[in-house]
Design a protein that fits this description.
801 residues; alpha+beta; Phenylalanyl-tRNA Synthetase, Chain B, domain 1; OB fold (Dihydrolipoamide Acetyltransferase, E2P); Phenylalanyl-tRNA Synthetase, Chain B, domain 3; elongated
């Protein structure tokens, strides 16, 4: 927000420097980015009156005689296309400094002496974006009442000081001169003085020529006035100066009035050419998918149902809250004008402006909030200005639809609540004084008081907001300074933090190195290694296509890291990552995704290099599975592994789903050779586990059990089994026997080949039994083995060898 200090002093009686004001505002909640003076670095620029102007043959130049208040007129050669006799111009006399510290000297052009320079605004350093279009390709023409020889700075308000405010979203009330004036008045204990306009209406009613209606719940109110017989012309110089100092290009008196209201009230407005309407009824509604509108910038916009449009005869004429339409814009031939003042849903405006990449002064204010209390006042003020500056006739009354709450918002608190939060000993009188400066009503007493907050401060709704206002105006520098008090409670890790730390320790103990990969990837990679893909959440304006979607798995990003290392001859890799994946079960455009903690690792190359004693050992499925089992063991869990063939990016014969109590936590296995080839990596094994689900399944740490003094007994058993029987099935059968003293089951041999009949295999297990309270006898162990043998025979068709 750019604030003219000259204008601000018209609204509040100030006698402080901009440096002091900046310091005061920055320490009370609205940061000042800086203060700039447009005239800084410029000198010896005076008003000139062009007495005569003759064309120089065969050139684009003009030989001018210019009165600059000296004894004799100056001869100046000028190449501007709009220079002519009789106009007042900006003259840089010899010795003057213009933009970029360029010094003007006497000189000759085509043999003609030139005693100065007739300047454009660009040559004074003003940006092209704010210069009036009529002067964008030529010199600036000053008002007729400008006196030759006077400094041009007061005429163009270049001697003004422009204060740049950094407005946070919660203080959008300061996106207007009135809002800034209220803030400054509160800081210095001053009164505000806002301009007033008297509106003279004719008997003819606006309702005779115009109707309005709302057909969208995103439009809170829509109000309009009709001004007939306007004369479209350039705005007076004072209005153009105000707009240019605020960073807005002057267009004409009608459009400039709407921009003036935007700056003064913070109320976005739009002016339509009534004669270009195809019907007398304006309808504010939701756009239809596929509708199109050519906006004022000449671009055709494709609309969606999320947008708000202003329509006439069911045709869009403006994009509500963002930009008007080209078909009904004000031009030099316009006579009858419709002034619009409305309040739109900020969330909808933000979506529209973001999707179309079309940010405007209007959209930024609708997004952050509008003062409900001054919508009608701003509309009437604009109509009065058109009556004054464009000689228009204002029809009586306004047409409107919808309504707004304008009564103050009441918030209650107590003096004790305030003092406890601020560490102060304020009295009720002190609090009354603060709210009097802010212009808020207050009633009650120290035990409980109620503050009536005007609608211009929509950021205040709860007790804490009142405390903040008291602290700001009372003065942060007056609050007592105390050392922080340390509580007696020791800090501790959350369950999630503790699990992450434990998993990190286990992974690094297994020889893995931690990496961090991007959470953004391509839409294809986002779901490539995901067991249950959901809707992809994509960025609206990604910087690159490769970083456009939130990942739903960690593995794809890790494989990019593997490829990066392999390409640089680092082929033996064991890496892991603990990060978030993003699950989207709703509409990605409307709902935020769920964030799930995930652990993943990737292995490729050799586990052990060859040397003079040993052969090289390559990574395989069982090595990767062993790391997963080690993780489960350290966490006190037991995972089940089931063959997984549905993941297209994983090898169907070397991939297993990881289950815990029947719930799928993730998978472990080899990356499919075709996928590996696409990534440019060798044979690679990966695993991914849902830590959020793992955390929910964790049980409290087991209580310490004293180590038994009695020895364990081991028995080996060799089984002849059908070839398709899995190790898990055998273990389940052994456990189903219900032998309480069985403490460990270990597979130590698998054999299939000679001396084993076809379709069979031999599996040998070591079983350990132990009684913590007594020695086991041979008879007891024999009974245990008989139970286990029976269960194996019945459940997995095992034969004892």
């Amino acid at each position: 927000m750019l604030v003219s200090y000259k204008w601000l002093k018209e609204l509040v009686d100030l006698d402080v420097t901009t440096a002091e004001l900046s310091e005061k505002m920055s320490t009370t909640g609205i940061e000042v980015e800086g203060v700039a003076t447009p005239a800084e670095g410029l000198s010896k620029l005076v008003v000139g009156h062009v007495l005569s102007c003759e064309d120089v043959p065969d050139t684009h130049l003009h030989l001018c005689m210019v009165d600059t208040g000296d004894e004799e007129p100056r001869q100046i050669v000028c190449g501007a296309p709009n220079v002519t006799a009789g106009i007042k111009v900006i003259v840089a006399v010899p010795g003057a400094r213009i933009a970029d510290n360029y010094k003007i000297k006497k000189g000759k052009i085509r043999g003609m002496e030139s005693l100065g320079m007739i300047c454009s605004l660009q040559e004074l350093g003003l940006p092209d974006s704010i210069i009036p279009k009529e002067f964008s390709d030529g010199i600036q023409i000053l008002p007729e009442d400008a006196v030759p020889g006077d400094s041009i700075f007061p005429y163009l308000d270049l001697d003004d000081e422009i204060i740049e405010l950094s407005i946070t979203p919660n203080r959008a009330d300061a996106l207007s001169m009135r809002g800034v004036a209220h803030e400054v008045a509160a800081i210095y204990g001053k009164e505000v003085h806002f301009p007033a306009k008297s509106l003279t209406e004719v008997e003819k009613a606006s309702a005779e020529v115009l109707e309005v209606a709302i057909e969208s719940d995103k439009v809170l109110t829509y109000q309009a006035r009709v001004v007939e017989n306007v004369t479209v012309a350039p705005s007076p110089q004072w209005l153009q100066n105000l707009l240019m100092n605020a960073g807005i290009r002057p267009i004409n008196n009608v459009v400039d009035v709407t921009n003036y209201i935007l700056l003064l009230f913070g109320q976005p407005m739009h002016a339509f050419d009534l004669d270009k309407f195809e019907d007398k009824k304006i309808v504010a509604r939701d756009a239809r998918d596929g509708e199109k509108l050519v906006t004022l910038d000449g671009e055709e916009r494709q609309l969606t149902a999320d947008d708000i449009v202003i329509t006439v005869a069911d045709k869009p004429v403006a994009l509500g809250g963002v930009m008007g339409g080209q078909a009904t814009e004000i031009d030099n031939t316009s006579k009858n004008v419709v002034l619009e003042a409305a309040v739109f849903d900020g969330k909808s405006i933000r979506k529209t402006s973001g999707r179309l990449n079309l940010r405007s002064e209007s959209s930024s204010r609708f997004e952050k909030g509008i003062n409900y209390d001054t919508v009608t006042e701003a509309l009437d003020f604009a109509a009065a200005m058109l009556q004054e500056l464009a000689e228009g006739t204002v029809l009586s009354g306004k047409v409107e639809a919808g309504s707004l709450p304008t009564e103050p918002v009441e918030v209650s608190t107590s003096l004790d609540y305030v003092n406890v939060r601020l560490g102060t000993e304020l009295t009720y009188a002190d609090v009354e004084e603060v709210f009097a400066k802010l212009g808020f009503g207050i009633s009650g007493n120290a035990d409980k008081f109620t503050v009536s907050v005007p609608r211009r401060r929509w950021d205040i709704a709860i007790q804490a907001d009142l405390v903040e206002e008291i602290a700001r105006i009372y003065g942060y520098d007056k609050l007592p300074t105390t050392l922080p008090e340390a509580g007696a409670t020791a800090g501790e890790l959350t369950a999630t933090q503790a699990l992450r730390r434990k998993v990190r320790t286990i992974a690094e103990g297994a020889g893995l190195s931690e990496i961090i990969s991007y959470a953004l990837t391509t839409p294809e990679k986002a779901v490539e290694f995901t067991l249950n893909p959901t809707n992809v959440t994509e960025l609206m304006w990604p910087m690159t296509v490769d970083r456009s979607a939130l990942r739903q798995n960690v593995v794809s990003g890790m494989l990019d890291t593997v490829a990066y290392n392999v390409n640089r001859k680092n082929s033996n890799l064991a890496i892991y990552e603990i990060g978030k994946v993003f699950e989207q079960t709703g509409n990605p455009k409307e709902e935020l995704p769920n964030e799930l903690e995930t652990f993943a690792f990737a292995l490729t190359g050799l586990v052990a290099e060859k040397d003079f004693q040993t052969s090289p050992v390559a990574v395989d499925f069982y090595y990767a599975k062993g790391i997963v089992e080690a993780l489960a063991s350290k966490l006190g869990l037991s995972f089940d592994f089931v063959a997984e063939k549905e993941l297209a990016s994983m090898h169907p014969g070397r991939t297993a789903a990881i289950l815990l109590d029947g719930q799928v936590l993730g998978y472990v296995g080899q990356v499919h050779p075709q996928t590996a080839k696409a990534y440019g990596i060798p044979e690679t094994y990966v695993a991914e586990l849902n830590l959020s689900s793992l955390e929910a399944a964790l049980k409290p740490a087991p209580a310490f059990v004293e180590i038994t003094k009695f020895p364990a007994v081991s028995r080996d058993i060799a089984l002849l089994l059908p070839k398709e029987t899995s190790h898990k099935a055998v273990v389940d059968a052994i456990q189903s026997a219900g032998v309480k003293r069985l403490t460990d089951i270990k597979l130590f041999d698998v054999y299939a080949g000679a001396n084993i009949e076809a379709g069979k295999k031999s599996m040998a297990y070591s079983l350990t039994f132990q009684n913590p309270k007594a020695n086991l006898t041979d008879e007891e162990v024999v009974k245990f083995m008989e139970k286990i043998t029976k269960a194996l025979t019945e459940q997995v068709d095992a034969e004892m060898r």
